[in-house]
Amino acid sequence: MSERLRRWRMMLGGQDADGTGVSLSGADARRDATLEALYDKEKDRRGGLGGSSPRVARWLGDIRGYFPSSVVQVMQRDAMERLGLRQLLLEPEMLESVQPDVHLVGTLLSLNRAIPERSRDTARAVVRKVVEDLEKRLAQPTRQAVGGALHRANRTNRPRHGDIDWNRTILANLKHYQPEQRTVVPERLVGFGRRLPSVSRQIVLCLDQSGSMAASVVYASVFGAVLASIRSLRTQVIAFDTAVADLTESVSDPVELLFGVQLGGGTDINAALAYCQNRIDAPRDTVLVLISDLFEGGDEKEMLQRAQALKADGVQVVCLLTLSDDGAPAYDHENAAALAALGIPAFACTPDRFPDLMAAAVQRQDVATWAAANDIPTAAAED
To answer: Which of 354, 248, 229 is nearest to 291 (CA)?
Structure first.
C-alpha cells in the first residue's frame, strides 16, 4: 500500500465511493475506528459511541493515544456537539478521561448547577488544571506589561538621580547635543516616580456570561486574578446575563470565580454598565473592559447612552467582542458600530495580546490606534 493511498483512505473514511480500494490494519484500523465512531454520517450520530460511560471513556482514551493534543481537543468538542456527551460529563469517570482545555471548562460551567455532588470534586480538579496552565502562560507577561505601564504613567520630570530614565532623557534632549564636548546637556530630566500610589488605577472587567462567551469568561477570570495581584490596581470582576453578579470577592481564586459564573440565559448590558458606573470612584483613573458580543436583550438606546456617559466622565472604555483564540466572533454589528462612533473601540482580542492592551489602556493611549498598530480590525463606526 502506498503512503499516499493510505493517507487518502484515512481522510475519506473508507466509504464505498472513496475510490482507494485500500483496507487498514493495526494502529491505522484502530485510529480509523475512533474517527468513524464520531464522524460516520451513515450512522446514528447519537448512537456512534453508545450510551455507556465506560465505552465513551475508552474512546476518549483511544483518541488521546492516537492523535496530538490539538486534534484531541477538536474531537472532544465535536463529540459533545454531535454525540450529545454533555450529560455524560457529569460522571466522575468521564471527567477523569477527558483532556482538559478551555472549551471543556466552558462546557462544565454551563452544566454547573446540574453537576451531581459525586462529580463536583473531579470537575473542580479539571477546571483548576486548566486555570493553572493558563496562569503559567499568562501571568508573567501580564504583570510585566501592566506593571511597566503603571510606572511609566507615574513618570516625573524632577526625578532623583537613581530614578532617572536615561534613555528617555537622552531622547528628549538630543537637540542639546554639544559636538565639541561630544555629550548631551539635558535641560529636562525624565524619570520614574519612586513610589506608586497605593492604588493607581481601577480595573473593571465586565463579563457577558451568555453561553457563547464561555471561553472569554475563562480567560477573563484568569486575567482578573493576575491583575488583582498587582498592588497598584484595584480590580473588580462583574458578570452579567439578565442579572448582575459582583464576583470581586472571589477574584483572587479564578476557580471559585468561575464556579460563581452561570453561563447561559439572556443579556442585559445596560444593567451591567449601570452597576459598574455606580462603583467607579475615580473615572479618569479607571479602565472598564466590557467583554461581550453586544447582543443586547435590554434597552439598547440606554445602553449606548450609558457607555457615552462613562466615556464623558473620563473612563477608558474598551469593548472586547471576544477574549479567546477562537477567531472572529459573531457579534451585533450595529451596536459595535454605534460604540465605535462614540469613540469606544470594539474588537476581538486573543489572550496573548491582552497584557499589551491593558498596558496601553492604563497609560490612557488611544486603544483604537493601538489595535491598528497590531493589525487588529475594529468595528467601523456607522456612517
So the answer is: 354
Phi, then psi, of 10 in degrees rounded to 5: -65, -40
3-state secondary structure of 383: coil
Rounded Cα distance between 92 and 108, Å, is 12
pLDDT tens column, 285-336: 999 999 999 999 899 999 999 999 999 999 999 999 999 988 778 899 999 9
| Residues with Cβ within 8 Å of residue 295, at least 6 apart in sequence | 210, 267, 331, 332, 335
Q: Where are the alpha helices (DSSP H) in the chain?
A: 3-12, 26-39, 53-66, 69-82, 92-97, 102-110, 117-153, 166-172, 214-228, 254-259, 269-277, 300-312, 333-341, 354-362, 367-373
* pTM, to two decimals: 0.73
Which is it for the CA torsion 106, 380, 378, 271, positive or negative? Answer: negative
d(CA 119, CA 108): 11
355, 145 contact by CB (below 8 A): yes
